[in-house]
Amino acid sequence: MAQDPVCNMNVDESRAGATSIYKGETYYFCSANCKENFEKEPEKYVKETGGHEHSHH
Questions:
Q1: Do the Cβ atoms of 29 and 6 come closer than 8 Å?
Q2: Of 22, 24, 44, 53, which is most buried with the most CB atoms under 10 A?
């Protein structure tokens, strides 16, 4: 089960309403509308990886 990065809905990869590939990663969406929103501003929805957590000391 994947998570739609726009609306956070759980999406079955085999039944996704739409998909998009960004920086080599496949993203699954519940609808074409969520895909369109993602493709307008992908950086807004992509979770950061690589352990760069922001912590307050």
A1: yes
A2: 22
Contact at 8 Å (CB) between 6 and 38?
Answer: yes
- Record the tokens describing residue 32, joined without a space: 């074409």
Number of domains making up the chain: 1
CA distances from 48 to 6, 12, 53 (A): 14, 22, 8
Token duo for residue 51: 């352990």
Whether the predicted pLDDT of 50 surpasses 70 = no
Task: Phi first, then psi: give them for residue 52, nearest 5 degrees.
Answer: -90, 70
**pLDDT exceeding 70 applies to what percent of the chain?**
82
At 44, phi and psi to the nearest 5? -70, -30
